[in-house]
Q: What sequence folds into this?
């Protein structure tokens, strides 16, 4: 018994040794070493004398990496892309070609993946390019790469990327926030878009989705907004730029100086004068802003701009999704704003506002900001298809005064409403009126209703 | 004398292995091998009796210890780093991916082998008197193995880890009164986060391994002290059976022979404990049935060791350990699944939280622990234990069936989706 045991033991031990050697070989021959050898040969070609040639060829293989603590990433792309910062490699074949036109975005300070996407930590081609399962941001194709500028340049115009500015403008004016949350502000009918740029959805998918939501994702509640190709492209750029990553103070403040001028621009853009006055000039529904920066610390003001309800429970000031620098700029402007500025801003609007006009103005702003426009249209015309709702579409708001009193409409806005069914046994219509009472204050709703009534076409008097 | 020989002799202090005395001394004088008897019964060595599952489990644990200690050199248990360290192991550390794969596959293997070992011990009736307590120790070792695997599951800090642990600890929180608190104690908060990662790490690399090593020592010691490995006694002649099962059994009814011999004989401690004069413990027939541990047992164990190691290495060369995207508390995968060995429970939870989260696991552990005291049938012959075998088989099959359903047949929203149907998820 057991005469064969030593043989079996010996055979298994040999197998173990072979397996260890296989593992060592597998670990010791990664593909990046081949790229490095090829690159060294390319470099050696240019060397005139044999000694330097030999020295170049004898360079030991090693992993190159750029540590970007500010961006919380490590990019090892230059392990294979060895010529990115070497102008003599201008005409070299990929992956060794020189990267021209980087301007101030030097690879040593910015790495590669912040713009290109891909997996910086990886050292194997497919994994590094992010073309593997479980990597959220694969390489962006040349058509879409400029969208990445928006990851750091979160506000203002980015030279050469008008799509981003246009995308942001469309997002804020077409009522996207009615259904989608972005940075915590917005509705919850559609998906949260805060991290849309890292969701692994391909740019092509996004662009098609903007052009024809139902074709790309069957049964989607998203209405077709009949965007043009340029608009779809612009929105796609904006979506791709959305990430929740902390870009670090260096990267997010590099271009945007929170100057009072920028603050003033925001003050006009966000229509602050509709509620606030400066030294008595302006509207009275919010506090006067003259000397507000003497009364409160910058931190307090910043908090107020981020989350008004937190500072003053029940505050009727809406939340604005403003970037850090935008808030700093606004505070800087408030610090030096005079009644004269307010007068100029007001006169820039044409004429001084009566309280009613101010309410209408504020209501109009709410209508766009909270996304009513998304379904009811920027001109209140309604008409979005809503299968099996009465009339088969979202109702126009141009004639609400005919059918409802103001207090009835306030109730509908406050509590929401499911549209009446056209066919009682049919499917539930995808779109419905959400309840807004948790998002809008009574003041907001009053302003909205005032705005709605100001837009009523005078059919009532005519009959 | 040759000085090298002298040094060697000072280390091993035994006769050459070619002699029977040397073979015995190899076991007697060596602290590591001392856990074995000098001679073992031939039936003990039969592959078909034990399948060496206990040894394989132990060897897998050895692999896990060595690879685990190596992995500890590269791992920082805090959220921004943990995942990055996984990527570094994958892409930068020399043989890091191989190391991680070995640890991963050995861990799954250990869960499987512990379970199979338990089944083997049950089917051969080896938990019966006098081995009842060792079965209890074995069940505790099973629980520790699950605990080690579960705590290790979180450490890569990817989506798979994060949500498996979220689901797994949620199952635990269904326990009445204490469930919520235990979950909070384990996680160091209300949800899986930094504190949970650190706690799981401490449990995984310090607390559970130490307990497992301690209990393993007890488990091995008790195998020896409870009468050695169990044998298929029903296949032996009945007369021998009685003698064999009583050897080494504590406080068996055999009285100490204090007859004529006691007048002129001093009894050693071992004789008092076993209740038998030491030279009578082995009968000549048994002697015929026994072989020296060296080489017969040791070579077989060494082969089991090498087979385990080569098996794990071969699997690790072919298949990398999985690593999904970075853990994201805001993005719940659909369906979020617990580690595979808890999917049976999750499947039950999907029908009834109380049943799957509280009753079933509590009952399973209590019943498993109580089996040797519950089962009063002294016979180990399979034909005498039909009921026990049936019940246990139903338990095993039900467990496996639930795990298979949970693993392969559950899709988004825990709906029944056969594995051959492809569901496009994430379309919104």
A:
């Amino acid at each position: 018994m057991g005469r064969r045991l030593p043989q079996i033991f010996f055979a298994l031990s040999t197998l173990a040794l072979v397996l260890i050697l296989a593992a060592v070989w597998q670990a010791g021959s990664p593909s990046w070493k081949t790229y490095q050898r090829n690159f060294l040969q390319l470099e050696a070609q240019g060397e005139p004398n044999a000694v330097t040639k030999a020295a170049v060829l004898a360079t030991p293989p090693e992993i190159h990496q750029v540590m970007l603590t500010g961006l919380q990433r490590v990019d090892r792309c230059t392990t294979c892309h060895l010529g990115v910062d070497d102008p003599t490699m201008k005409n070299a074949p990929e992956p060794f070609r020189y990267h021209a036109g980087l301007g101030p975005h030097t690879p040593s300070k910015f790495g590669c993946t912040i713009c290109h996407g891909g997996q910086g930590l990886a050292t194997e081609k497919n994994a590094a390019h992010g073309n593997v399962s479980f990597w959220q941001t694969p390489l962006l194709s040349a058509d879409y790469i400029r969208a990445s500028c928006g990851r750091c340049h979160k506000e203002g115009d980015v030279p050469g990327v008008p799509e981003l500015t246009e995308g942001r403008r469309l997002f804020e004016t077409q009522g996207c926030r009615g259904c989608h949350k972005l940075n915590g502000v917005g509705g919850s009918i559609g998906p949260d878009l805060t991290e849309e740029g890292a969701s692994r959805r391909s740019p092509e998918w996004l662009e098609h989705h903007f052009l024809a939501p139902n074709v790309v994702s069957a049964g989607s509640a998203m209405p077709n907004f009949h965007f043009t190709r340029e608009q779809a492209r612009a929105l796609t750029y904006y979506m791709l730029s959305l990430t929740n990553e902390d870009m670090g103070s260096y990267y997010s403040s590099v271009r945007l100086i929170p100057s009072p001028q920028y603050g003033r621009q925001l003050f006009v853009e966000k229509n602050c004068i509709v509620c606030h006055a400066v030294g008595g000039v302006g509207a009275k529904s919010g506090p006067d802003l003259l000397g507000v920066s003497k009364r409160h610390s910058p931190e307090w003001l910043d908090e107020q701009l981020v989350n008004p309800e937190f500072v003053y429970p029940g505050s009727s000031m809406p939340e604005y999704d403003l970037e850090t620098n935008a808030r700093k700029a606004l505070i800087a402007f408030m610090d030096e704003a005079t009644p004269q500025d307010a007068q100029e801003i007001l006169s820039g609007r044409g004429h001084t506002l009566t309280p009613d006009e101010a309410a209408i103005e504020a209501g109009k702003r709410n209508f766009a900001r909270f996304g009513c426009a998304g379904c009811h249209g920027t001109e209140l015309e309604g008409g979005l298809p809503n299968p099996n709702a009465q009339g088969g579409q979202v109702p126009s708001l141009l004639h609400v005064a005919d059918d409802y009193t103001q207090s009835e409409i306030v109730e509908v806005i406050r509590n929401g409403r499911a549209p009446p069914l056209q066919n009682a046994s049919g499917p539930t219509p995808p779109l419905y009126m959400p309840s807004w009472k948790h998002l809008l204050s009574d003041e907001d709703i009053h302003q909205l209703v005032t705005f709605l009534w100001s837009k009523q076409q005078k059919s009532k008097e005519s009959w | 004398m040759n000085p090298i020989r002298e040094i060697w002799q000072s280390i091993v202090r035994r006769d050459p292995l070619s002699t029977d005395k040397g073979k015995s001394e190899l076991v007697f004088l060596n602290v590591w091998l001392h856990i074995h008897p000098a001679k073992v019964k031939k039936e003990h060595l039969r592959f078909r009796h034990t399948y060496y599952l206990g040894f394989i489990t132990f060897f897998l644990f050895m692999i896990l210890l060595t690879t685990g200690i190596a992995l500890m050199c590269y791992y920082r248990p805090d959220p921004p780093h943990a995942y990055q360290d996984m990527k570094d192991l994958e892409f930068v550390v020399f043989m890091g991916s191989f190391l991680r794969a070995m640890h991963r596959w050995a861990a799954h293997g250990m869960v499987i082998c512990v379970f199979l070992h338990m089944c083997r011990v049950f089917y051969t009736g080896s938990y019966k008197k006098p081995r009842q307590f060792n079965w209890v120790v074995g069940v505790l070792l099973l629980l520790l193995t699950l605990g080690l695997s579960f705590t290790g599951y979180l450490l890569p800090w990817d989506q798979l880890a994060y949500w498996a642990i979220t689901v797994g600890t949620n199952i635990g929180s269904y326990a009445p009164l204490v469930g919520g608190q235990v979950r909070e104690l384990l996680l160091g908060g209300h949800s899986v986060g930094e504190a949970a990662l650190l706690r799981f790490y401490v449990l995984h690399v310090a607390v559970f391994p130490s307990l497992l090593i301690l209990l393993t020592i007890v488990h091995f010691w008790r195998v020896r002290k409870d009468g050695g490995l169990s044998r298929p006694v029903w296949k032996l002649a009945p007369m021998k059976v009685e003698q064999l099962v009583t050897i080494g059994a504590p406080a068996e009814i055999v009285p100490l022979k204090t007859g004529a011999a006691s007048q002129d004989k001093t009894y050693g401690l071992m004789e008092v404990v076993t209740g038998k004069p030491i030279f009578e413990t082995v009968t000549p027939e048994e002697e015929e049935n026994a072989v020296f541990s060296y080489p017969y047992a040791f070579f077989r164990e060494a082969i089991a060791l090498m087979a385990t190691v080569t098996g794990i290495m071969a699997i690790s060369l072919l298949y990398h350990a999985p690593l999904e995207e970075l853990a994201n508390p805001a993005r719940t995968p659909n369906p979020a699944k617990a580690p595979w060995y808890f999917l049976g429970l999750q499947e039950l939870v999907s029908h009834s939280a109380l049943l799957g989260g509280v009753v079933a696991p509590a009952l399973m552990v209590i019943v498993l622990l109580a089996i040797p005291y519950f089962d009063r049938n002294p016979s180990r012959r399979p034909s005498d234990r039909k009921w026990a075998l049936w019940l246990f088989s139903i338990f095993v099959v039900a467990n496996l069936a639930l795990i298979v359903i949970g693993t392969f047949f559950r899709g988004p929203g825990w709906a029944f989706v056969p594995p051959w149907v492809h569901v496009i998820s994430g379309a919104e």
Observations:
- Chain B touches chain A at residues 42, 80, 84, 87-88, 90-92, 94-98, 158-159, 291, 295-296, 299-300, 302-303, 306-307, 309-310, 313-314, 316-317, 323-325, 330-331, 427-428 (CB under 8 Å).
- Chain B is about 60% helix and 0% strand.
- Strands of chain B lie at 39-41, 290-292.
